[in-house]
């Protein structure tokens, strides 16, 4: 049975207008993304071409090579043309050797012309094609394993976090969590990784409140979850973060190492990490194109709007962010089933009718994005350290998840804001989820908010505030003539944080593309269309 | 005298009842339950009552234990740091700043190190505030510069100088392996290096993991822990500003 329709009686004209405004706000920004490149996009391209590893000081070879090319010929033509030209000229037998020589200043790069340029580009296309094929193969492997082991038998999928800092500790914890019922394992990254302008290498055992995202850590964890998937007869998904300054590289590594979901928000890095807006949008488009091709489900970060602002007053900013995330994602080639749009249970529980409002907000997201596997995130801001009350709050959070057919449920811990979860916290949290889902998931069938009642009215109000805000964004402007969305970000429209396009971290890694810019990865990704018979994993049929 | 001796209160005065939950790395069987009871007794619960035991996977068991604790607490032996300054309303704080400084009090705030969690600093600084109290941005006579997350110490010092900061607030929420201590000592050392002696701004560190009374070790003037409200911070800043003014004039 498909979802009962029109639970909220939203005016289709208003919904259309919201989407049209989001598209209008996104368009000039997409144009900027298409006309710029970044050091991280270029490094990701080299990673697709098979360059990995780092020097003895742990500086990755892709960083060395991009820096060398940038210093000598600039990045505006793309890194691959000078790099493959150098290989064709016999400067080095392979990328790794070339990078090593470049690091010690023993190679000179140039921008080839004519026939030599064509040859370099052809060689680059072949080289980068290898990585893209690895991504395609990983996608096919995932689809095969899902056919073999099966998807979780019920929705929402249960999403659990591990975060010890040590990949070799994470692995048994992740396997235990899967055995206890997790459908998705997220390995939280070490705090601060988003601001590193390189991807660390190798298996890591030292992290702060999380574990570094590295290719080797990805590989180790995916292999461990494959093992446990076979044991459990259920494909256990792996999540990490494509965010921060290395978004494109992490996306490429995730695609190649068959991660299944990636945190990837259109504006999170700008607003909450003070990363330059242009850098973010350029990096993000590339990373989303990779995710689209890799069959990865993205998770967006709307919960952040609610933890930094009042969850009632800021409810419409979640909707606006979801609409923008949807627009940017679709433009990059992602399909509805890949959009884990986020929202969270963060209304102050002291406020009367807080639960009804949570229901209204969650239903609004469900109705606006019927095909997307929405990601429902637990309370954090009003978890006080009173674990008993927190356990109850998580129960109500789970109940909203059950009643509104969420696709992905991040399991709330009663020890949120107290300690990293104990083994027993996780067990209790899963008992909480199971009890609520067993007892009440059928409620979605019975639950129809009355026409023009509290829930319908509240949802419509939030939607109309979202439309107003989108309208203000597309009409925003600044003296510099920036894209309206950039102007809006600059003047503090989102989350009260003012982030001008000329500020923030990573700006010096942005470069406008020249007319002869060539990047075989972006060329291939721009031309890529999803396979016709794509695996449909939408949550549409949640209500059983 | 006995009025100063306390025991936990379950449902009867003096019953000493506490509840406790923990996990042992043992499969759930009789021996595991015995081990749990033995642990509880060693923790001073006598009699201890095992009310719940549940296997969590093949290797772990979760226990809930109730029991009467044999320990007593003499309240006279409890030493705490009492607030040494009066709590001011926003209006009184504003008045005091205006009278003493004849300009706005400049507060620069940041999360330093790798900590990206601005909840603490935002709760104190943002107009939105915390626990029903408005943040320092709300104070007419306070100018707030909130630098946000993952601010580098040299940047913080430079900005504090550029803004002529009277006070610098740093927040450390998520921390591991004592990162909050390293970050804070590094921060206070950088300020002492950058400023002439006696002119360092009021340095305040906040976060749930700081130990009360460790100001001297960290090189800061004041530490605030979990549950601190903007009003307490504002009152402290006014108090400290007054004290410093009295010293110099």
TrEMBL record, chain A:
Domain (D-Lysine 5,6-aminomutase alpha subunit): give its ranges: 8-522
Comp. bias (Polar residues): 535-544
What is this protein identified as?
L-beta-lysine 5,6-aminomutase alpha subunit
The region called Disordered is annotated at 522-544
Q: Where are the transmembrane segments?
A: none
Q: Which GO terms describe its molecular function?
A: catalytic activity; cobalamin binding
Species this protein is from: Terrabacter aerolatus
Matching entries from InterPro entries are given as: Cbl-dep_enz_cat, Lys-AminoMut_A, Lys-AminoMut_asu_sf
Automatic annotation (TrEMBL), chain B:
What organism does the UniProt record list as the source? Terrabacter aerolatus
A Pfam family of this chain: OAM_dimer
Q: Which GO terms describe its molecular function?
A: cobalamin binding; metal ion binding; protein dimerization activity
Which segments constitute the B12-binding domain?
Answer: 104-248
Q: Which Gene3D superfamilies match?
A: Cobalamin-binding domain, D-lysine 5,6-aminomutase beta subunit KamE, N-terminal domain
- Top-level lineage group: Bacteria
**PROSITE patterns according to UniProt:** B12_BINDING
Protein name in UniProt: L-beta-lysine 5,6-aminomutase beta subunit
């Amino acid at each position: 049975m498909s979802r009962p329709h029109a639970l909220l009686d939203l005016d289709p004209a208003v919904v259309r207008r919201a989407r049209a405004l989001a598209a209008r706000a996104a368009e000039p920004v997409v144009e900027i993304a298409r006309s710029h490149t970044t050091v991280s996009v270029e490094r990701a391209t080299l990673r697709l071409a098979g360059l990995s590893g780092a020097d003895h000081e742990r500086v990755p070879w892709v960083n060395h090579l991009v820096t060398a090319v940038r210093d000598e010929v600039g990045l505006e033509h793309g890194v691959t043309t000078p790099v493959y030209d150098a290989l064709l000229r016999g400067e080095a037998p392979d990328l790794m050797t070339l990078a090593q020589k470049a690091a010690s200043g023993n190679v000179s790069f140039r921008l080839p012309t004519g026939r030599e340029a064509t040859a370099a580009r052809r060689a680059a296309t072949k080289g980068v094609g290898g990585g893209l094929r690895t991504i395609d193969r990983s996608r096919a492997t995932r689809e095969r394993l899902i056919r073999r082991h099966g998807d979780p038998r019920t929705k929402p999928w249960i999403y659990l976090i591990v975060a010890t800092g040590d990949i070799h500790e994470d692995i048994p914890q992740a396997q235990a969590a899967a055995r206890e019922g997790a459908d998705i394992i997220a390995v939280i990254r070490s705090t601060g990784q988003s601001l590193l302008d390189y991807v660390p290498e190798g298996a890591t055992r030292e992290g702060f409140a999380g574990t570094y995202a590295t290719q080797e850590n990805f590989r180790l964890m995916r292999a461990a979850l494959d093992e446990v998937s076979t044991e459990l007869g259920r494909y256990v998904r792996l999540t990490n973060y494509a965010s921060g300054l290395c978004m494109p590289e992490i996306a490429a590594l995730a695609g190649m190492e068959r991660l299944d979901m990636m945190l990837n928000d259109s504006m999170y890095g700008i607003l909450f990490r003070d990363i330059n807006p242009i850098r973010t949008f350029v990096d993000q488009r590339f990373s989303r194109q990779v995710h689209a091709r890799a069959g990865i489900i993205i998770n967006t970060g709307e919960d952040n709007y609610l933890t930094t602002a009042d969850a009632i007053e800021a409810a419409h900013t979640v909707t606006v962010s979801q609409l923008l995330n949807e627009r940017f994602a679709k433009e990059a080639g992602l399909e509805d089933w890949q959009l884990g749009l986020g929202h969270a249970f963060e209304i102050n529980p002291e406020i009367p009718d807080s639960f009804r409002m949570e229901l209204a907000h969650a239903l609004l997201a469900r109705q606006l994005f019927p095909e997307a596997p929405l990601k429902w995130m637990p309370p954090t801001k009003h978890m006080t350290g009173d674990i008993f009350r927190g356990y109850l709050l998580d129960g109500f959070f789970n109940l909203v998840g059950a009643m509104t057919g969420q696709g992905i449920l991040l399991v709330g811990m009663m020890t949120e804001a107290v300690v990293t979860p104990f083994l027993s916290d996780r067990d209790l949290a899963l008992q909480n989820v199971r009890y609520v889902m067993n007892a009440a998931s059928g409620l979605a069938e019975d639950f129809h908010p009355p026409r023009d009642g509290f829930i319908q009215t509240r949802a419509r109000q939030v939607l109309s505030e979202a439309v107003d805000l989108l309208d203000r964004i597309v009409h925003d402007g600044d003296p510099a003539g920036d894209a309206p969305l950039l102007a809006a970000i600059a003047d503090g429209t989102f989350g009260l944080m003012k982030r001008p396009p000329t500020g923030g971290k990573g700006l010096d890694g942005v470069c406008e593309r020249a007319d002869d810019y060539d990047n075989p990865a972006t060329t291939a990704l721009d031309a890529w269309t999803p396979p016709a018979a794509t695996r449909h994993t939408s949550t549409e049929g949640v209500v059983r | 005298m006995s009025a100063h001796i306390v025991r936990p209160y379950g449902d009867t005065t003096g019953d000493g009842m506490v509840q406790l939950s923990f996990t042992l790395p043992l499969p759930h069987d009789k021996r595991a339950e015995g081990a749990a009871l033995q642990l509880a007794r060693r923790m001073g619960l006598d009699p201890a009552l095992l009310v719940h035991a549940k296997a969590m996977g093949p290797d772990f068991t979760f226990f809930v234990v109730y029991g009467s604790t044999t320990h007593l607490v003499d309240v006279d032996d409890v030493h705490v740091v009492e607030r040494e300054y009066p709590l001011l309303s926003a209006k009184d704080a504003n008045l005091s700043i205006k009278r003493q400084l004849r300009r706005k009090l400049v507060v620069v705030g940041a999360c330093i190190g790798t900590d990206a969690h601005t909840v603490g600093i935002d709760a104190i600084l943002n107009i939105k505030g915390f626990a029903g109290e408005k943040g320092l941005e709300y104070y007419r006579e306070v100018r707030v510069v909130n630098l946000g997350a993952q601010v580098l110490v040299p940047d913080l010092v430079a900005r504090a100088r550029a803004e002529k900061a009277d006070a610098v607030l740093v927040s450390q929420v998520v921390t591991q392996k004592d990162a909050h201590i390293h970050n804070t000592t590094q921060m206070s050392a950088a300020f002492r290096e950058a400023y002439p002696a006696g002119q360092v701004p009021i340095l305040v560190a906040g976060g749930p993991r700081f130990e009360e009374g460790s100001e001297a070790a960290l090189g800061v003037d004041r530490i605030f822990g979990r549950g601190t409200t903007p009003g307490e911070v504002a009152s402290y800043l006014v108090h400290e500003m007054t004290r410093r003014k009295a010293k110099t004039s």
